[in-house]
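Hi R.,

As promised on Friday, here is the backbone we talked about, encoded as structure tokens. Could you run it through your design pipeline when you get a chance and send me back a sequence?
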């Protein structure tokens, strides 16, 4: 992952882009991974751990209607979170993660391990649906790593 993050940093640096993250189920793990890379302060503006729906709504401007109708773990909420963090921090790119890390909280429709990752850039919006297995910690790590991989894909789509 470190090599991917270094590659992201090089691209963002070269293009003059900035990055922000909104995390729910990963609790700040993605931001931590990004800031583990020397020089990330050149492009990483920061993030919000939007664990509660209230924070998603108040800070990231996720519609309470979408939260109620689709639930916090949905592609619509992930996209709204990524737009919200990009607008809040004024970054070029916003990344959002929302999901169910478990061990409880899952259902037949939304099982433990279900994660949505959304990325909004000036040129492309992408959202991915994932179902990870493992412990709570493993699901969080897999979700953060998947967000890094999804970010690389979004960057490639813009080039």
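Update: got your reply. Pasting your designed sequence below so it's all in one thread:
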């Amino acid at each position: 992952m470190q090599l991917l993050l270094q590659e992201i940093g090089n691209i963002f640096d070269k293009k003059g882009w900035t990055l922000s993250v909104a995390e729910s189920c990963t609790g700040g793990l993605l931001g931590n991974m990004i800031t583990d890379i020397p020089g990330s302060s050149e492009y990483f503006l920061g993030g919000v751990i939007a664990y509660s729906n209230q924070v998603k709504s108040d800070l990231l401007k996720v519609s309470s209607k979408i939260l109620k109708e689709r639930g916090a773990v949905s592609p619509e909420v992930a996209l709204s979170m990524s737009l919200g963090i990009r607008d809040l921090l004024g970054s070029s790119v916003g990344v959002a993660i929302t999901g169910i890390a478990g061990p409880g909280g899952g259902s037949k429709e939304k099982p433990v391990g279900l994660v949505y990752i959304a990325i909004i850039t000036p040129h492309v919006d992408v959202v991915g649906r994932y179902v990870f297995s493992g412990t709570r910690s493993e699901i969080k790590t897999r979700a953060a790593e998947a967000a890094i991989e999804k970010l690389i894909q979004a960057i490639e789509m813009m080039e």
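One thing I noticed while checking it: The chain has a mean pLDDT of 96.

Thanks again,
M.
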